[in-house]
Amino acid sequence: MYLAPLQRSVYWRLALLFLLNPLIFFLDIFTDAIFATSCRHSNLTVTNGSLLPGADSDQSWPAEACGWVDWLSCSQTLFMVGMLLGSLFGGAISDRYGKRPLMLVCLCADSICVLLPAMLPQPLLYLGLRCVTGVCFCCLSTSSFSLAVEWAHPEARLWPSAFLPCCFSIGTMATALLAWLSPTLTKLHLSMSLPQLACLPLFFSIPESPRWLLLKKRMDILERYRNNSPEDKHFLDLVLDSARSSLQKASEVQEKRLPGDLASCDYFHFKHPTVLLRLLIMSYLSAATALTYYGICMNIGSFSVDVFVAQFFSGLSEIPCLLLPLIRMGRRPLTMLTLFLSGAACFLTLLLSRYNTEPKLVLSVALLGKLCILGASFITVLYSIELFPTVIRQRCVSLVNLSFRSGCLANSLLFTHPHGMISVAALVVYSSGPIIGSGLCLMLPETSGTQLPDSVEDWRKTASIQRGVRRKHPILGFYEQPSSN
Predict the structure, then answer these.
(1) What cellular component terms from Gene Ontology apply here (predicted)?
(2) Which residue among 6, 244, 369, 457 sits deepest, i.e. has the most Cβ atoms within 10 Å of its Cβ?
(3) Burial class (CB in 10 A: 0-12, 13-18, 19+), 431
(4) Is 171:19 a contact under the CB 8 Å cutoff?
(5) What is the signed CA dihedral for 405, 410, 415, 418, rounded to 10 degrees?
(6) Is the pTM above the cut of 0.85?
(7) 214 and 349: one domain?
(8) 220 and 84 fall within a common domain
(9) What is the per-residue pLDDT across 149-183, written as a single tens digit (0 to 9) for each?
(10) Domain containing 136: what range?
(11) Do 117 and 75 reside in the same domain of the chain?
């Protein structure tokens, strides 16, 4: 697929950003591993845990910090709390001030928050900074992903949702290698923060979203982008025409609304049974995918396999999601398939772990479930956008995203596993949630290839047209007669 020069400028920088994001995201896992190993060595305690290369007590952290091991296990929870807070206002800030400024501010803040514990090694400071880092990480992910989608061709917007997480997976493998080479907490924080600080100047020249510039009437910047090259001019014309078309539709719907008419009020649409049903189902799917994905991701060291090796293969297992846009299936069947396979893999992991099977086999099956649930999360993001009408789409998608962040927080609060294997209750939740969600998808319509609805009335028109059009039988090949209803 051909990319215009400005597109390439955006995507190679965003690819670098997603390569660096795991340095922030997985810091808690390696901090816990190194902290526990350092304290065990300082106390001369013999355990069955895997030892780090050249592990030794970290003299830069105070000796009494070993009494904070239980408190440091809360850092993951604080990080998720920060992500939940960031999801509440990150989108509004990016809509008001732009994706690029928010991304740059969060990048600087993240780098500083990861670097400070190396210079000021205090457990309480580390816990507070992890909450701030969670806020910045969520805002950074929201703004960068939106920037990638809005710089994509209107017909190729599924590719950023697969390409950028693939870069995140490669960064996960690199993070495991860097952590393995950092035997102390000070070296770990330096190795996680310095690459981000070194790459920070590269992001100051990233272009702003053309859609946001059009909304804010920043035509001077858009004209400068268009004059960059003939390819950029052609590409931006396509993107801006698509943006103008969608904005015009939204404006027409807005003009049809009467100020005192409850039937045209946005909040009135939320009382519609179809809206409520779809909102509840998509919120459940988001919470279930968050529980399963982050449950496996954040407890990857609980499968009796070295945490660094497990984290490396955890990133490797996600790379096949890059092929997701090539699968020619509708939204509903693909969502159902990935959810069911993920739940089945987690249930098989539960059975294998109970019968003391080889840990490497248990980990492999768990990573298969992680791959499937990651694919399901990609599709549900697009599914959520296509299911709701324009007048309330942004609010509905925001509520679905809030359910996702709530699932992340619930996982860190309810299913923490500081010792040994993942509990049976956690694996039951990880396996049953996606399977139930797969069944709930039967109550949702297929949206692939259909026009986005502008109002609830458009649903009724579309449904009546679909009932009156002959449909081809999926197996036998003949055309069914229209329903008499």
Answers:
(1) membrane
(2) 369
(3) buried
(4) yes
(5) 70
(6) no
(7) no
(8) yes
(9) 788 876 676 677 778 888 888 999 999 999 898 88
(10) 1-43+66-247
(11) yes
